[in-house]
Design brief:
- Its cofactor is Zn(2+).
- Keywords: Hydrolase, Metal-binding, Multifunctional enzyme, NADP, Oxidoreductase, Riboflavin biosynthesis, Zinc.
- With about 375 residues, the protein is of the alpha/beta class.
- It has helices at about 5-15, 55-60, 85-95, 110-120, 130-135, 140-145, 175-185, 195-200, 235, 255-260, 280-285, 300-305, and strands at about 30-35, 40-45, 70, 95-100, 125, 150-155, 160-165, 190-195, 220, 245, 265-270, 270, 275, 290-295, 315-320, 330, 345-355, 355-360.
- It has a 9-stranded mixed beta sheet with strand order 11-10-9-8-14-6-15-18-17, sandwiched between helices. It has a 5-stranded mixed beta sheet with strand order 2-1-3-4-5, sandwiched between helices.
- The radius of gyration is 22 Å and the shape is globular.
Length: about 375
């Protein structure tokens, strides 16, 4: 691949990231149209998933798209959904060459978009910045291939791995810079998820604040019994900001009616032992369209996800204070007897944020 191809693909990837968290269940795709060394069109998947990136870039390019090269971060779609196929739009515009990062794993598209372009005499180049694109589209691929969204587990803890004192006091362990970084991460995910214990203890809003967000992520709370405060922040805002409650079977019908009356969406899930089955819960969220979920704990929910190998990315914010053994641990019991049984992740980023340290770890199958 040429340096020029990599440069324009890097731009297309940056454009696609603009709507991460806002275009589910569609992938956040970017597209750049280049003719005679000049960018004549740019586009990215619109909030809500439509229009797609390619027709937006082609509309901006107009007649200059004829004979141009289109750089797209994912194989152009080839099926009729709510919009015509993007492959047909590229063919109709007369582009001469399409450079794509990845093939789409959706069986309605997989390889067919490329085949259609080639049959119409368009040169197709694939694999440009494929690792970067695989990271950006990991949630879309997981939902397509495994039926579940990508899960990022975030923890803010003391140096000794505690998230609260013995009395439950937890605000604030990390500083304002780290908290702002968390809001930016929330904005790039389709949903923010917590367990019932965290919802009861912290009364969180789970919204993106002070960043000019025009679209809020779905708030997901996992609560087997729906024993959540009906006068808390989540309840008060359920009619304005999406709130999904994942619960077990046999929940009290009055609680169900109360939460539905407030505007929440209730999602029944199977149980595994005394807890909501995390695998079934994620399948339900995938079926509802989510591709990227940002889990902010607490310890029991984090342990259940880790124990089932359902965490794809770890993000840790560590503060320079110690709380001691009597404090609340960041992760609940995993029941491990040997170190080789512990889930391991690859370190891909370390960054100082004001007085705290952010680390990001990915499982091996997700490029960092």
């Amino acid at each position: 691949m040429s340096d020029q191809d990599q440069r324009y693909m890097a731009l297309a990837l940056s454009l696609g990231r603009r709507t991460q968290g806002a275009c589910w269940p569609n992938p956040a795709v970017g597209c750049v149209i280049v003719r005679d060394g000049r960018i004549v069109g740019r586009g990215w998947t619109a909030p809500g998933g439509r229009p797609h990136a390619e027709p937006q870039a082609l509309a901006q390019a107009g007649p200059k798209a004829r004979g141009a090269t289109a750089y797209v971060t994912l194989e152009p779609c080839s099926h009729h959904g709510q919009t015509p196929p993007c492959a047909d739009a590229l063919i109709g515009a007369g582009v001469a060459r399409v450079v794509a990062a990845l093939e789409d794993s959706d069986p309605r598209v997989s390889g067919q978009g490329f085949d259609r372009l080639r049959r119409h005499g368009i040169e197709v180049v694939t694999g440009v910045l494929a690792d970067e694109a695989a990271r950006d589209h990991a949630g879309f691929f997981l939902r397509t291939e495994q039926g579940r969204p990508l899960v990022t587990l975030k923890m803010a803890s003391s140096f000794d791995g505690r998230i609260a004192t013995a009395t439950g006091h937890s605000q604030w362990i990390t500083g304002p810079g780290a908290r702002r970084a968390v809001h930016a991460m929330r904005a790039r995910h389709d949903a923010v998820m917590v367990g019932a214990g965290t919802a009861r203890a912290d009364d969180p809003a789970l919204t993106v604040r002070d960043m000019g967000a025009s679209r809020q992520p779905v708030r997901v709370v996992v609560s087997r019994h729906l024993d959540l405060p009906l006068l808390g922040q989540l309840a008060r805002s359920a009619a304005e900001v999406p709130l999904w409650l994942c619960h077990g079977p046999g929940v009290d019908s009055e609680r169900v009616r109360a939460w539905e009356g407030l505007g929440a969406r209730l999602i029944p899930c199977a149980l595994r032992g005394p807890q909501v089955d995390p695998a079934d819960m994620l399948r339900q969220l995938g079926a509802a369209g989510l591709t990227r979920v940002f889990c902010e704990g607490g310890g029991a929910l984090a342990a259940s996800l880790l124990g089932d190998d359902l965490v794809d990315e770890l993000v840790g914010f560590t503060a320079g204070l110690t709380i001691g053994a009597e404090g609340l641990p960041a992760i609940g019991a995993l029941g491990l007897g040997r170190l080789d049984e512990a889930p391991r992740f690859d370190l891909v980023e370390t960054r100082a944020i004001d007085g705290d340290v952010m680390t990001r770890w990915c499982r091996a199958l997700i490029p960092g």
